[in-house]
Write a structure and sequence with these properties.
The chain is globular and about 70 Å long. Among the domains are: 171 residues, Prolyl oligopeptidase, N-terminal domain (Methylamine Dehydrogenase, Chain H, 7 Propeller), CATH 2.130.10.120; 270 residues, Rossmann fold (3-Layer(aba) Sandwich), CATH 3.40.50.1820. By secondary structure, the chain is α+β, with helices and mostly antiparallel strands. It starts with a helix and ends with a helix. Helices cover 15% and strands 34% of the residues. Strand 16 and strand 17 form a beta hairpin.
């Protein structure tokens, strides 16, 4: 291994180069226009994000394209102009006609003023409205997250709907002294109190929030802007035990449909948790009556109204259990009030059949023009594919079965023009478009690439399937297999026999799909082979695989990863004397287990916000139910600490094997992590230090569980790569 200093420069240049590949986040199709020769065309507006290392921030930019089509196929498509940066936009939404656009914008305050939020309306020529929401003071900050947040036009294009934090009364000390103001009124004068008069004794009241990444979300309210009247109103009639979000206007604009999450007896973390009790509701704008539209004992999300205004599809899970799993697709008929199940959960994935729905959300626009078919993307083993679903029959067809293998995501569909994102482990995201064929002919979809992104040279990859040996089979779910994606350098000095970096994913109920991932690609270019393991319990393999893992964490998932490592070392030309682990969250849990249970295999380990001791995590995390579910026990909010449960948690935790660890460990912790609080990593750090194991801890302020801040991500990569180079010499 060369001297470290040249490697530092080489690695930083490599990271700088690969981190510049932008991610594609949004797409919106403009209205159809007709040329003087009768041809139809429309504009395609796309939003991208890119890491700016010099500014240490994620920037957003937009790019426009023109698409000429004849309704059946795309005749010509290409870019219109260059990219331009988008500043301060938190949310934006085109109106149904495409003639107007609403923008929620943040603007820095002057001098010591706090940041302001403005709601703007643009027509095709200029900005026609700009409302200072902060000055109006009707509510707190507007939500711009993808859990509650929305910005929805009424069908008449006269009103806008959004979600904001409920206005909280100002609080002051019991002993606040101030000169009496002329004309003020209080209890002593007998006059009514001003509405915004400060409340005494409320200064230090604890306000629950919705956990990881949603720490500023406590009590959401639905708000309506009357564009003509320049007025903002907060909707009445939503029950106090519900937190509303993901809202849109009902047909005829008579009211609002929303998802309501129960927050009693207390809030649990909501990010990546599609198992929280919630239901679909309708609130009438005139009478304020709130009506339940779905069952109230399930977890629901992603409601989408059909173009004809007759049907709402949404996703549904059971409450509690695994945080993410194979979900049901349900449909509510607005006029008959009948709810049907379009697609059930799929027990086992089988090629040629629908794999099940594992997505965190349906595309914002997912309906075909016929108001019968919807488009969605979902994991199918270790790849992600696009499917069209006939909501009347439940029939499904893959639109990407004959397209290149990788990771496909639907961005939008409008008037049957379909926009998608595609990437592979060696090819950064690219933009693809197609016309949705007529019903029954969907498999004939022809994908057109709007901008060619050349593959990153020097990376080869493939997916392999593994079958656990009979003694490691789950007694109830026999015959389950799993996958791994192996990336290896195809050029450079280590290409013949590279060292191996093993990466199990977090979750545990998530998935590595064969798409672009910065860290694995950069490690591969730096000369390492990278093994991404989708052990049993991962999404995309059927519900049986998901439910096979709870009760078996620390054994089944650990053995799957180890089996995979031993198999690739046998079958591939890799350096078996130089194997390391890299993992975050549950992937960190597995990495710490593996260096303890199989100390002879691994020479180094890097973990990011790892779960180390489930027993000490249960009382500090925003998801205590996870700790019980994954060790195989039921969760109830009123459960008290139980010694037998704590023993089981400790027994399944990697801290149990710390005495056997020999590999040097690099820990990376986010100071603001609410999911796996940094005390977990500190506990492991102290245990390793006490045993004389080489260890280093990186502490990232202002970062949460994902460690996705631009500085933390870049610094984390450099430290990880240098740690691996140093200890795999």
């Amino acid at each position: 291994v060369p001297q470290v200093q040249p490697r530092v420069e080489e690695l930083s240049e490599l990271y700088r180069e690969l981190s510049q590949h932008p991610g594609l986040s949004n797409a919106c199709l403009g209205p159809d226009l007709t040329t003087q020769y009768g041809g139809k065309y429309c504009s395609l507006y796309t939003e991208w994000s890119q890491r700016d290392l010099a500014r240490a921030e994620n920037i957003k930019f937009c790019r426009q394209y023109l698409i000429f089509h004849d309704g059946a196929s795309i005749v010509y498509s290409g870019p219109a102009g260059t990219c331009s940066e988008i500043k301060g936009e938190l949310l934006s939404r085109e109106s149904p006609s495409g003639m107007l656009k609403a923008v929620l914008r943040k603007v820095p305050g002057k001098e010591k003023e706090k940041e302001k939020q403005f709601l703007e309306v643009w027509d095709q020529n200029r900005k026609v409205k700009s409302i200072d929401l902060t000055a109006l003071d009707k509510h707190g900050s507007v939500y711009d997250d993808d859990q509650f947040g929305c910005l929805a036009w009424s069908h008449s294009e006269t009103h806008l709907l959004y979600v904001a934090e409920k206005k909280r009364p100002k609080a002051e000390s019991f002993f606040q002294s101030k000169a009496p103001e002329l004309g003020t009124s209080d209890e002593d004068t007998g006059h009514p109190k001003r509405e915004d008069a400060p409340v005494k004794g409320e200064q230090f009241v604890y306000h629950e929030d919705w956990g990881e990444t949603l720490t500023t979300c406590s009590v959401p309210v639905l708000c309506v802007m009357d564009i003509e009247g320049n007025s903002i109103s907060v909707l009445e009639g939503i029950p106090e035990h519900l937190s509303p979000g993901q809202a849109f206007w009902s047909p005829e604009d008579t009211g609002v449909v929303f998802v309501g999450w129960w927050h009693e007896p207390f809030r649990l973390g909501l990010r990546h948790c599609t198992n929280r009790r919630s239901a679909l509701f309708y609130v009438d704008l005139t009478g304020g009556r709130c009506e339940l539209l779905s069952e109230d004992t399930k977890a629901v999300w992603s409601p989408r109204l059909s173009p004809d205004g007759c049907r709402i599809v949404y996703l549904e899970n059971d409450v509690l259990g695994p945080h993410q799993q194979c979900c049901r697709l349900r449909m509510y008929d607005w006029y008959t009030k009948h709810t049907s199940t379009v697609l059930e959960a799929v027990p086992r994935q089988a090629w040629g059949a629908f794999p099940g729905i594992y997505c965190g959300a349906l595309p914002g626009m997912c309906w075909a023009a016929d108001s019968r078919r919807i488009l969605l993307d979902t994991a199918q083993r270790s790849q992600q594919d696009v499917f069209v679903v006939d909501t009347a029959t439940g029939a499904t067809t893959s639109l990407t079965a004959d397209a290149p293998q990788g990771s496909w995501s639907v961005l939008t569909i409008d008037r049957d023009l379909l926009v998608a994102r595609f990437s592979t482990p060696s090819c950064p995201p690219m933009l693809k478009v197609a016309v949705l064929p007529a019903a029954g002919h969907e498999a004939q979809a022809q994908w057109i690439c709007l901008q060619d992104v050349p593959p990153v040279p020097g990376i080869s990859w493939g997916i392999r399937t593994l079958q656990p040996p009979p003694e490691q089979e789950h007694p109830q779910y026999r015959g389950l297999d799993f996958d791994a994606i192996l990336m290896r350098p195809s050029e450079g000095s280590t290409a013949q026999k590279p060292p191996l970096v093993v990466m199990p994913h977090g979750g545990p109920h998530s998935i590595f799909t064969a798409g672009w991932m910065l860290y694995p690609a950069a490690l591969c270019r730096a000369g390492f082979a990278v093994l991404l393991v989708n052990y049993r319990g991962s999404l995309g393999f059927g519900q049986d695989s998901v439910v096979s893992l709870p009760g078996n964490v620390g054994t089944q998932d650990v053995r799957d990863v180890q089996l995979c490592v031993e198999r690739v070392l046998q079958e591939e030309t890799l350096d078996a004397s130089r194997v390391a682990l890299v993992g975050g969250s549950h992937g960190g849990f597995l990495s710490c287990h593996l260096i303890g249970q199989f100390p002879d295999t691994y020479r180094a380990c890097v973990v990011r916000n790892p779960v180390v001791n489930i027993a000490s995590m249960v009382t500090t995390t925003d998801i205590p139910d996870w700790c019980l579910t994954e060790i195989g026990l039921p969760y109830t909010p009123d459960a008290l600490p139980d010694p037998a449960q704590w023993t089981e948690m400790l027994h399944k935790s990697p801290i149990r094997y710390v005495d056997r660890v020999r590999a040097p460990v690099l820990l990376m912790l986010g100071e603001d992590d609410r999911r796996v609080p940094p005390k977990q990593g500190l506990e492991y750090y102290r245990a390793l230090k006490a045993r004389g194991i080489p260890t280093r801890l990186l502490w990232y302020p202002g970062n949460n569980h994902a460690l996705a801040g631009i500085e933390a991500e870049a610094d984390g990569f450099m430290n990880m790569a240098l740690w691996l180079l140093k200890h795999l010499q």
